[in-house]
Design a protein that fits this description.
Oligomer: single chain
Helix content: 40-55%
Radius of gyration: 22 Å
Strand order of the largest sheet: 2-1-4-5-6-7
Largest sheet: 6 strands, antiparallel
Number of strands: 14
C-alpha cells in the first residue's frame, strides 16, 4: 500500500507531500488543482510512463529543469520501500536510496491500472491510442516485452534515418537494421496476439455481467501475417526496401499495426454509439484490472472522474469489481453521494 508521496516541480506542484494511510483515498478539488497530476505521478512511478503524454518534458513544472517523485510503500505491515524518480538532464531511479540501473527492477514494485475519462478514445481514436494501451498493458504483464519494444524502437529510428537519404543509403546497414527489427518485432507481434486473445475473453465475461446486450464482443488484429516470425518478417522488410526508400520510412511492422474492437461483427469505432463505446472501454479497462490482479494481488487503481456519465447499475457494478484492489485513488470535483466513500481518506486540493 502506498503511504506517502512527495513531488518537486511535477506538473503544477512546486513542492508538495501527501500522506496516504488508507486503502481508499479521494483527491477532491476544482478543475486545475492537480488531482489528475497526483494520479499521474503514481502511475508514472509504477510504469515509468505517463497516461497523459509521451513527452516527458511536459511533466516538468513550467520554468523548472526537471522533476522528482518519491513514493513510499508498505507491504503487509512488514517492510517499507521507497521509490524515487528524478528526471533532469537524464532519468535516475532510486530504490531505498540506492541507484537502480535497470528499469525492470524498479517498475516491478507495484502494478497500477488507471480508469480515465478519455478511455473511449482507445476505441474511437487513431491506431496510436490502441497500440499505446496494449503496449502499456503488456509491459505490466511481461517486463521482457518492454525490452523488445525498446530494441525495436531503436532499430526503427536508425533504419528510418537511413531511409531518408535515398541516394546514398547504405544497403548493408539497412539489412542489418531490418534483421534487428525482425527479431524484436516478431516477439512484439506474437505477444500482442496472445494478450488480445486473453482480453477478448475477459471483456466478454465482464460485459456479460454489466451489459449483456454487448457481450457479442470480439477483437480482430490488423497485422501482417509475415511479422509473426522473424524469418518471414525479415523477408518482407527486404522485399519492401524500395518502397520504404521512396517513402523515407519503414512501412510495415508492429509500429503501424492496429486492432479493431467489434460488437456483433461491427467495428465500434465506426458503428458504435457513444454509450456503447463508453461501456466497452470501461469493460476493456476492467478486463485489464482483472488480468493484472491474477498476477498481483495488491493492484493500485486510479479513478479519475471515470464514472460520472454511467447509470446507477453500471456504477454499482464498477465499484463492486474494484473491491479486489489493493488500494484505490479517486479524483473528483464533487464528492459522489455513494456511502462507500464515507470511510475513504480525503485530500482536498
Amino acid at each position: 500500500m502506498l503511504k506517502n508521496i512527495a513531488l518537486k516541480n511535477f506538473r503544477n506542484f512546486e513542492s508538495a507531500e501527501f500522506h496516504l494511510d488508507a486503502r481508499s483515498i479521494v483527491f477532491l478539488g476544482a478543475n486545475g488543482r492537480g488531482k489528475t497530476s497526483l494520479l499521474e505521478s503514481i502511475y508514472f512511478v509504477s510504469s515509468l510512463r505517463s497516461f497523459r503524454t509521451s513527452r516527458i518534458r511536459e511533466l516538468r513544472r513550467i520554468g523548472s529543469n526537471g522533476f522528482e517523485i518519491c513514493l513510499k510503500l508498505r507491504r503487509n505491515d512488514r517492510w517499507d520501500r521507497e521509490l524515487k524518480v528524478e528526471d533532469f538532464s537524464e532519468r535516475r531511479l532510486f530504490l531505498n536510496g540506492v541507484p537502480v540501473r535497470r528499469a525492470s527492477e524498479f517498475a516491478d514494485s507495484f502494478k497500477c491500472v488507471a480508469f480515465l475519462p478519455d478511455d473511449p478514445v482507445i476505441l474511437t481514436g487513431s491506431p496510436v491510442f490502441r497500440r499505446r494501451f496494449l503496449d502499456m498493458f503488456i509491459c505490466m504483464m511481461d517486463r521482457s516485452y518492454f525490452s523488445a519494444l525498446q530494441k525495436y524502437a531503436a532499430a526503427l529510428r536508425s533504419r528510418n534515418c537511413l531511409l531518408k537519404d535515398r541516394r546514398s543509403a547504405d544497403r548493408s546497414l539497412l539489412s542489418a537494421y531490418a534483421a534487428l527489427l525482425a527479431d524484436s518485432g516478431a516477439v512484439i507481434v506474437r505477444k500482442r496476439l496472445e494478450v488480445l486473445e486473453m482480453l477478448e475473453k475477459k471483456v466478454r465475461y465482464v460485459l456479460s455481467e454489466i451489459r449483456p446486450e454487448l457481450q457479442e464482443f470480439s477483437i480482430v488484429s490488423r497485422h501482417s501475417p509475415a511479422s509473426t516470425a522473424s524469418e518471414t518478417f525479415l523477408e518482407k522488410l527486404e522485399r519492401s526496401v524500395e518502397k520504404d526508400l521512396e517513402r523515407s520510412m519503414t512501412l510495415t511492422g508492429p509500429h503501424v499495426d492496429d486492432f479493431d474492437l467489434l460488437c456483433s461483427g461491427k467495428p465500434l469505432r465506426y458503428f458504435g454509439s457513444r454509450g456503447q463505446c463508453r461501456m466497452v472501454s470501461l469493460a476493456l479497462k476492467l478486463a485489464e484490472f482483472e488480468l493484472v490482479s491474477e498476477l498481483e494481488e495488491k493492484v493500485v487503481v486510479l479513478v479519475d472522474d471515470a464514472v460520472a456519465d454511467l447509470d446507477r447499475n453500471a456504477r454499482d457494478a464498477f465499484f463492486e469489481k474494484l473491491e479486489g484492489a489493493g488500494q484505490i485513488f479517486y479524483a473528483f470535483t464533487d464528492l459522489p453521494s455513494e456511502t462507500r466513500f464515507s470511510d475513504s481518506g480525503m485530500i482536498r486540493l
